[in-house]
Amino acid sequence: MSGLRIPLEGPDGSGTAHALNLLAPNPSPMTLDGTNTWVIGRGEDVLVVDPGPDDPRHLARVAEHLRDRRVVAILLTHGHHDHSGGARAFAGLAGAPVRALDPRHRLGEEGLGDGDVVVAGDLELHVVGTPGHSFDSLCFWLPRDRAMLTGDTVLGRGTTVIAPDGDLADYLRSLDRLRATAEQVGAEALLPGHGPVLPDPIAALDGYVAHRRRRLDQIRQAREQGATTPREIVEIVYAGVDRSLWPAAEMSVRAQLDYLDGS
Ligand SMILES: [Zn+2]
Fold this sequence. Notes:
Blueprint: E1 15-16, E2 19-23, E3 36-40, E4 45-49, H1 56-66, E5 70-75, H2 81-84, H3 87-94, E6 98-99, E7 117-120, E8 123-129, E9 138-142, E10 147-151, H4 168-185, E11 189-192, H5 201-224, H6 230-237, H7 246-260
Parallel strand pairs: 4-5, 5-6, 10-11
Antiparallel strand pairs: 1-2, 2-3, 3-4, 7-8, 8-9, 9-10
Helix pairs in contact: 1-3, 4-5, 6-7
The chain binds zinc ion.
Protein name: MBL fold metallo-hydrolase
Organism: Planobispora siamensis
Domain Metallo-beta-lactamase: 34-194
């Protein structure tokens, strides 16, 4: 059993037996409550996944929490700033390398990619390549807790967007792969990059796939009604959504148009 830790309020302090979320103070419509920084391991040796934005108070809080424990490596689920911005500064505090798929975000010799196994003490993290939200998105499977760290591929609330450096066809394949993996290994929790822990991985992934298919259908229909530009489509499909989210919606519509038009 994963022994889910679910705090009374918000995602800070949530997680599983060997994964603890220290929430960064950068809430926004795009980042929900803020970025989840995950500390993996309870022993001497730990891994830190996504140090978050370059916020000295947050990084100091994470370092303070770790005290004398050794950070074996800092891992990035992807290179977007709200996850990676503080990596370099935190590497300085922790004396640890930064491993990421994108070489531009690495510090040290080692990269990170599908199939890699990262070890800290007696814990393992298995890297699952899940491009789509961004070209460099990775998930990390923590067998000990039957938990999957999902970065922005699956969020704790709402749905994610396909960023300009992402791809919807890749994303749909990644969701299928995550679902198959979750079923095969008996995953009991998804630990997202933003928002609360998801205790039912299969239901969450099915919900994501269904949502994408629904949106694609709505976009097809909006086009049949005469909408042509991404903005016009947003005004129809996202009419019920808060306008502060429309720029993100427009980005998502662009990705979906690319997908529908096969480019
Ligand atoms: Zn993010």
